[in-house]
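INFO  loader      accepted 1 record
INFO  loader      residues=68
INFO  predictor   begin
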Amino acid sequence: MYLCVCHALNERRVREALGPCGTVSSVFKNTGVRPRCTLCLPFIKDAVKAARQEPSPDPGGVAVGPAE
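INFO  predictor   done
INFO  writer      dumping tokens
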């Protein structure tokens, strides 16, 4: 779904642009655009909030269990 029509920013692109800071401003900075009409700001803010609540992926995909 598109979150910013002015710059064609969809959910995937917003998630990719979050960066380590994970802020609305980092999304715009990392995509190289500035808000125009600002109608997208609440939607991008919600996407940032949701991304922060997602569990981080397991690095390497190796399960950690008891030592044998």
